[in-house]
Description:
The chain is mainly beta. The chain has 2 domains: 9-141, Beta Barrel (Elongation Factor Tu (Ef-tu), domain 3), CATH 2.40.30.200; 145-292, Jelly Rolls. The chain contains 2 helices and 23 strands. Strands 1, 2, 3, 6, 7, 8, 9, 10 and 23 form a 9-stranded antiparallel β-sheet that branches. The longest helix has 14 residues, at 71-84.
Amino acid sequence: MALGLLDYQLDYRGFRIGADTPYEVVSHEGLLGFEVRSADEDLPRGDGAVRGRDLVAARQCGIDVEVVGSEAEVESLLAALRDAFDPSETLDSDLVFKLPGQVEQLIRARPTQLRDRRDWKGLLLRTQPITMRAADPRIYSSDVRQLIVPIYSAAGGGIDYPVGDYPIDWTASASGEVVATNAGKARAYPLIRWYGPVTGTATGVKLTNLTNGEVIDIQTTVSAGQILTADIEAYVTGAARRVIALSGASRYGSWQFPHTAWSLSPGDNVVRFELTGTSVNVQALLTWRDTWRA
């Protein structure tokens, strides 16, 4: 959920800096933009290199914070800043920022350097540089999107062709296809939850993004009261979370090949949920954030 930041404000672990705070952000770099790590091979058959796949590298960020006041006030403000940006050994936290005319965005980062720098000629005005690193370089919207996807079924008595070249009156109408919107410019990797049936059986689930052709197929029995989850972001980023789980227990082996990272492409995505079993009341819940890379 958006934090309601003002333009040029940043928030890290609930600690707010920037406009209308005692901590003036005089400069920052790396919150936007990207750096591609080289995958070129330097041994081609001729001059140059063999073209590799360009993937965005981890994000490096720098923030310069300025504080003003009496000597005691300055030291107190900087002590609070150091506490807020205390390093973490294993966890990244949301660094949320707001730029004029833009939605609130965030990166998941950790402080990697906060070095004291003092100039005895300027004890009443101090600048504190902060260095941060985001292993996941993606930029996310602060707001979270959610969408319920019901079980798909063909209706209308026609033939449900998977192509669009047939006259419309030949094709059955579809019940249950929904549109998921990713307002960013990069693929969004959602958290998918399937809730166990109230009645009937559920022995397998399949979710298809008809826009980009990606499919996730999990064959396992989901009973009433159970929740089957697919954490696609964890799969892509290597986060320390179970990728496929049934009420907390791993079901990774039930994920059918190919193991592709199911995603929402930029723009509108038509999503279809199909069920193996007899239940008609299972639903899939998608949770994601609009996603950018630059």
